[in-house]
Amino acid sequence: MALKRKAKAIWQKTHAPDDRRLFKNASNRLKTALHKIRNDNFTEYVSTVKCSDHSIWKPLKSRKKPTMPNPPIRKNSTPPGPWAKSDEEKAELFARHLSEVFTPHDNTFDPDIENKLTNLTNRQEKLSAFTIMEMNWVIKQPQPHKAPGPENITAQMIRELPTPGFKIPLYILNSIIRLEYWSTTFKLAKIIMVLKPAKPPTDVVSYRPISLLPVISKILETLLLNKLTE
Q: Do 135 and 182 lie in a common domain?
């Protein structure tokens, strides 16, 4: 690069054909050297990329995702249903579709099971209370960039809590174990509809649901699993 700058300065002073030729030669050699350096750096980078540590996806994070179209949807039945254009209409259409596809569990009273539960004589020992150390270990497991549930509390938010801040959620989780009652709030999930690959985006059946549970509920599930498998 220094040789090119020196040759350029001489040619600009003299405007001689020989000096111009020397400047062109220096410029071409610099371009060739830079091209070789870029290729060598790229080859070295590609050789270090691995699928096991997900490093192959890191360059894609800096790229902006393409904007997906948001067309109206409807149920392609016979005859086809009405178009849903607004967010409220789409949510209502998805809700009706999911209620037809998925059915809740049968919660009818079973007398045999009730009799077995009432006739149990040896009550199982209750689980011991969770500790701060157990909760700290579990909180480090979820990925911080996972989408939050309906309460919009991410795993990163809980990770950033100071040590005294863990006492409140720990008290809540231990109360669930002590009272043997799983709050309905922890069972609520945010439903996200994702378009299936190679499916028409205007058909309601082309979408699959993804349920996003609260992070605190996932933490409780992991704590319970660790207790039961000890």
A: yes
